From TrEMBL:
Cofactor(s) annotated in UniProt: Zn(2+)
Gene3D superfamilies registered for this protein in UniProt: Metal-dependent hydrolases
Record-level GO cellular component terms: cytoplasm
Species, as recorded: Nonomuraea cavernae
Gene name of this polypeptide: allB
This protein's UniProt keywords: Hydrolase, Metal-binding, Purine metabolism, Zinc
Name of the featured protein: allantoinase
Length: 436
């Protein structure tokens, strides 16, 4: 047998068939063999994690990198370094909050030039669907974006306006024509109101669960009429689970995600004035959180991704009506989800399915999402028993703002390998453009 470049052994390797002791052989950046834990193997480097878990690299399909144009909010270097520190080896960048937004090929090319040589992990891209760019969707698809993000309500930035119902239908018809995917921020603007004041309760009341459900029901109807593939982003209201389950039962090509903050934080916990918790749609009640977990376990919600939407601290003013809405958690998602999942009796294999396997499948990123021969050797040494206090100032995110600051999370990433190489301060991520 040809020697391996790297062998990583663990008594808790999380493989597609479940958790077991194994030795993973890596050659030329790919997983070339799976062996018994104690197998005698020839390798340039042999790492024995013993009881530390070995996971596939996570795939986070919902990351706002914000570069170019708003690099002071975040950037490819800082975002991808944070991702690697959190066990994420592949991200998909959102098309908005960068200037220009990724709504045509020229904007995508500008983003690729900015990202080149700066990424610590592999990076793919979403395009955007906005009023007036219908003709740009097919060229963006052909250039390799993974799908198209749209809003049904205001996005928060003027350069990325929402689609009305007619525009949503046209976008769905267009992407259905070439087998594309529309990913949707689903809140009904007719049911959103301006917050009546600066408090969290007033902000929460201004974005009710009914606004999410109504928008989801509209998208389901339009998807059924057009035959398009649709993915619902960041489900925060458990009221959406019933129509999503019915759509799946009807055979529609609809998937949905939720986020660590909706599974781990609750409205009751939000300190008054702490706008690091503000996001759209909002963090809801503890009872709602329990129902989201039920939706995740049943498969109605397919995956858990960060919706890392950072901003400088000066935009997080202590007024929930005025503050920028977005949670920064890219580096913390794995530990946050594991903290709550383990408390509820779920295993690392569940977390891997939700945070690696399923996101890779939805975004059609080949070679990711599992420890199996032929896949990229994206691996994570994760200590599930570690206790990790969160200090926002020690994170790799560009700005030290996160609702997890001061909390203690369970689990710690010890090493992240990208294509068989440990991630360090030297970027060696690849820009992933889909093959068409």
């Amino acid at each position: 047998m040809t020697p391996y470049d790297l062998v990583v052994r663990s008594r808790r390797a999380v493989l597609p068939e479940g958790e077991r002791a194994a030795a993973v052989g890596v050659r030329e950046g790919r997983i070339a063999g799976l062996h018994e834990y104690s197998a005698e193997l020839e390798a340039a480097e042999d790492v024995d994690l013993r009881g530390i878990a070995l996971l596939p690299g996570l795939v986070d399909t919902h990351v706002h990198v914000n570069e170019p144009g708003r690099t002071h909010w975040e950037g490819f270097a800082s975002a991808t370094r944070a991702a690697a520190a959190g066990g994420v080896t592949t991200i998909v960048d959102m098309p908005l909050n960068s200037v220009p937004p990724t709504v045509d090929v020229a904007a995508l090319e500008a983003k690729l030039r900015t990202a080149e040589g700066r990424c610590h992990v592999d990076t793919a891209f979403w395009g955007g669907a906005v009023p007036g760019n219908l003709k740009d969707l097919r060229p963006l698809h052909d250039r390799g974006v993974r799908g198209f993000k749209c809003f049904l309500s205001p996005s928060g930035v003027p350069e990325f306006p929402p689609l009305d119902e007619a525009g949503t239908r046209r976008a769905l018809e267009e992407v259905a024509g070439f087998g594309g995917l529309l990913v949707v921020h689903a809140e009904d603007p007719a049911l959103l109101t301006e917050p009546g004041g600066p408090t969290y309760r007033e902000f929460l009341d201004s974005r009710p669960g009914a606004a999410e459900r109504g928008a989801v029901e509209r998208v389901i109807r339009l998807a059924g009429e057009t035959g398009a593939r649709v993915h619902i982003l960041h489900v925060s209201s458990a009221d959406c689970l019933e129509p999503l389950a019915a759509a799946r039962a009807d055979g529609l090509a609809i998937t949905a995600e939720t986020c660590p903050h909706y599974l781990t934080l609750t409205a009751e916990q939000v300190p008054e004035g702490d706008t690091s918790f503000k996001c759209c749609p909002p963090i809801r009640s503890a009872a709602n959180r329990d129902r989201l977990w039920d939706g995740l376990v049943s498969g109605v919600l397919s995956c858990v991704v960060s919706d890392h939407s950072p901003s400088p601290a000066d935009l997080k003013v202590p007024d929930f009506a005025a503050a920028w809405g977005g949670v920064s958690s890219l580096q913390l998602g794995l530990s946050a989800v594991w903290t709550e999942a383990s408390r509820r009796g779920y295993g690392l294999d569940d977390v891997v399915r939700w945070m690696s396997t399923n996101p890779a499948a939805i975004a059609e990123i080949s070679g990711k999402g599992g420890i199996k021969p032929g896949n990229d050797a994206d691996l994570v040494a994760f200590d599930p028993r570690a206790v990790t206090p969160v200090d926002a100032h020690r994170l790799h995110h560009r700005n030290p703002v996160t609702p997890y600051h001061g909390r203690t999370l369970k689990g710690a990433v010890l090493t992240t390998w990208l294509r068989g190489r440990p991630v360090d301060d030297e970027p060696h991520g690849t820009l992933l453009l889909g093959e068409r």
